[in-house]
Amino acid sequence: MTIRLNYSITAMIVFAVAVASGRNNCFRAVSAFTPTLTTTVRNQHHHSTRTSVATTSIVAPLNWNHHQHHQQRQQQQQQTRQMSTTTSTSTEETTSSPDDEPQEKKKKKPIRPERVLSGVQPTGSLHLGNYLGAIRQWVDFQNEDQFNDDGDVVPVENFFCVVDLHAITMPHDPKDLQESTLSSAALYLAAGIDPTKSKIFVQSHVPAHSELAWLLNCITPMGWLERMIQFKEKAKKQGESVGVGLFSYPILMAADIMLYQSTKVPVGEDQRQHLELTRDIVRRFNDLFCKGNQYKKRCKAAGVPSRPVFVEPDAIILKEGARVMSLTDGSSKMSKSDPSDASRINVLDDPKTIRDKIKRCKTDAIPGIEWDNPDRPEATNLLNIYSAVQPTKRTKEDILNEVGEMTWGEFKPVIADAIVNHLQPIQDRYYEVRNDPDALNEILKQGADAANEVAERTLLNTKVAMGFNIPPPAQPPASK
Ligand code: TRP
Questions:
Q1: Average pLDDT value for the chain
Q2: What are the start and end residues of each CATH 3.40.50.620 domain in the chain?
Q3: Which of 203, 228, 271 to mutate to test the pocket of ligand 1 (most atoms within 8 A of CB)?
Q4: Given pLDDT bands bounded at 50, 70 and 90, which one contains residue 80?
Q5: Three-class SS of residue 247?
Q6: Measured CA distances, 244 to 235, 240, 248, 251 (Å)
Q7: What CATH number labels 341-439?
Q8: Mind telling me the catalytic residues?
Q9: 203 CB under 6 A from ligand 1?
Q10: CB-hemisphere CA count at 13 Å for 424?
């Protein structure tokens, strides 16, 4: 415990120094960040093109004090994880070095920044779906080395956000919001998000999120939002009282992404449509406001670069095994909003609760446990979970050899143990972090400071593009 605490403090200092010494030097990444399959090993060079599907590696420890465990898991991921991405046509980021010439001609390519951004809502406690489907994936991104076409390792800048402004789009209880927010942030850290490598911050600590969301509200057609499946589903449940905030939720999400010129956004499959919408909004904004001589004049007068303000992000969608389904219905997603707590395993559930939930979870009357039988979604779900929480990579065959012939009664204690063992170290770290509020707040402050700096710059560029009067004391962004 002490060692870990010391580590966090050291980590904070290193992070603080990194932030203080300038945001542009230590987190930058290059265009060859390629988001799809994890199949290679450390120091193996990757060759890819900007829009192609290629390989990435998982390199650094999953958790700062669990090297060995990580290495095992790394092998596991290399074989199992399948990600997909939409293609993007990223434009340049606001403060990067000039990167306009054709890249092939240069010996040393200029560094093009790559940013990873994601967030989870701090409603209630996070469950296995949030963890396996999102946060654990972020940890992998954070820890991956990225290579450019010359084989140079290039760092990536990561932003992981607790999206508390999104959490109020459904009715919420003020007495819980603060605790859920801090608890989510603590879980990010416990799961292995490392503040020396990633910025962890709370969305509402960066006012530009709300402000950009308003600006984007005004340029987004209602029709685009009316098509959003998640809105339709959530609105159904709320009837007449459905809030405007829920309707424009995807615009706030677009603002989250766009403020950081994010290029890679790891999310669950259910967020794909929101990412597409974000890309549409980026294109619309750039088309409407970032073209022509008037735009160039406004930029010049304000001292900002006259390239398009926003970058189209890629969704990084984890496919296989990442969809963790409800324990009481293998065909619907594990969800915080399911009224039954027995439908999900929360990351902080104690061992007894986990065992009880598994004991009571839905099964079927068919003998044996098998994968991918459409009539047996519960079997597939539990096998996916079982596979995801293995300490070392195991093939499907290997797992089936072990458990395929078991009855549900035999399988249940086996999977319960595996989940308990997997979550134990995360829970230990969680309580360590959560019980040191000063350290946690400091990490969030450092994260928000760094985030604010980038976000404010984008917001200024946005306002210039839209033609707002910019008050004189506004700092021009770092000169190009
Ligand atoms: N809507 C996302 C979800 O429910 C959470 C989210 C908000 C998010 N803002 C984001 C995810 C920005 C990625 C990037 O999962």
A1: 80
A2: 114-323+454-466
A3: 271
A4: very low
A5: helix
A6: 10, 11, 6, 11
A7: 1.10.240.10
A8: 234, 333, 336
A9: no
A10: 12
